TrEMBL record:
GO terms for molecular function: DNA-directed DNA polymerase activity; endonuclease activity; hydrolase activity; metal ion binding; nucleic acid binding; RNA-directed DNA polymerase activity. It comes from Araneus ventricosus. Residues 1-157 form the Integrase catalytic domain. This is Copia protein. Residues 245-277 have a biased composition (Basic and acidic residues). Pfam families: rve, SH3_retrovirus. Residues 228-282 are annotated as: Disordered.
Amino acid sequence: MRMIHSDLCAPVEPATLSGERYFLTFVDDYSRFCEVRWIKKKSDVAVEFKKFLKVNDIVKRIRCDNAKEYVSGELQKVARNAGVEIDPCPPYTPQLNGVAERMSRTLFDKARAILYDSRLPKSCWGYAIQAAAFLHNRIPCTSINDHTPYELKYSTKPDLSKIRIFGCGAYVKVADTQKRKLDPKSKKIIFIGYSSMGYRVMDPVTRRVTVSRNVRFDEKKIISDKLAATPNIENQEDTSDLGAENEKEKDIKLEETEREIDDKYPEFRRSQRERNPPVRYPFNEALSATNEELTYDEIKFFPE
């Protein structure tokens, strides 16, 4: 990870649940491993770069475009203190920063599909972008000979058993200190991403996002944000008796309708004459009356 490609994506509407409108990408030139950071304004780029370089101290060069947030004095100062060279592209030539630009498009395409499938509001795009980057790092890439970025960076194969469907229903364990004797032991939530310490989950009512390890998933159910509010069962009226009475009224009305139809359209008069089938094949009846097996020579002498 000596060279990093970086790009700042344009403001996204609407803002995330915590107010961010931009996201910053860091793509490793060797492994194509991608990391994503959310920011509220462009001036926060230098702050995020400082955090990134503190963790990845082997970075020596950063390829980026010629935007002000990259060539400003604040970011140059951060790079100089870390011993990193900023390599901006010439103005109006984003193709020279193609690795980062293509990564931004890939993340947007995946996040768009994730949000559409999960039916979550657009304000969750930040978590969808992070989930897309998480999946990208664990999918084989043709530019690195069908290896996964995770494998090239950490020299081990990724664990795919923790991958879940974005936006699926889940149940998180409620801490003993936060419940009483008769309170439920789990709470229904929505899965919206991954964390190094567990899973990111969101309360569908309060929209509060937390990280938890004790999660049970129900991937067959997708919880929409519009259907998040659970009805209060205690305040609902018991309408079972009313339903039975309504069914009885429907049966009575149906019987009256059938009776009116019978009175209006009486059954047509039919002939009472006894009908007998015609005798068309006396020769066959004669054969069946004998109950014996006859030869052709014996049959040909029968009267017609």
